[in-house]
Design goal:
Blueprint (H helix, E strand, L loop, with lengths): L3 H6 L7 H10 L5 H12 L2 H21 L3 H11 L5 H13 L5 H12 L14 H13 L1
Length: about 140
């Protein structure tokens, strides 16, 4: 059975997909209760880990807040491609799906499939944000 300690030691990160595939295959059908015990070790970063996470999060938040236009730029992009539009839903689904894609060829096929089905042209010129302007043109050309 998969041992969380292997991931925590870091040797998993140096393996290729082909080397790691037998590990995945061996754990295809395991006792979920026993497996959960192993996975819970990965979910608990400990006091030192929590302190490091807090410090890193604080630094990221302070960096974003120190930029004059970072929040406005991101808000403009989120307003333009909000989840109440077909294009916004497509982008959200694509972003979520790309987290699970095993290789570049599959990612390219997924992007091609998702981006070709939307009406990106209707977002051109709809925002004063430079990021949204270039994002809209990029999506039009890609789609």
């Amino acid at each position: 059975m998969f041992k969380a300690s292997h991931v925590l030691q870091g040797d998993v990160l140096t393996q290729t997909a082909a080397e790691f595939f037998p590990v995945i295959s061996a754990n295809y059908s395991v006792d979920e209760a026993a497996y959960l015990t192993e996975l819970l070790q990965l979910a608990d970063p400990g006091d030192t880990g929590i302190a490091a996470i807090r410090s890193s999060a604080r630094t990221l938040i302070e960096d974003v807040r120190s930029r004059d236009n970072a929040v406005d730029t991101l808000d403009a992009l989120l307003r333009q491609y909000s989840l109440d539009t077909q294009e916004g839903l497509m982008l959200m689904c694509l972003a979520e799906a790309l987290l699970r894609v095993p290789d570049a060829a599959t990612a390219d096929a997924l992007i091609r499939d998702k981006l070709s089905a939307a009406e990106w042209e209707r977002h051109l010129g709809q925002s004063d944000s430079v990021l949204v302007y270039f994002a809209a043109w990029g999506l039009v050309l890609t789609g």
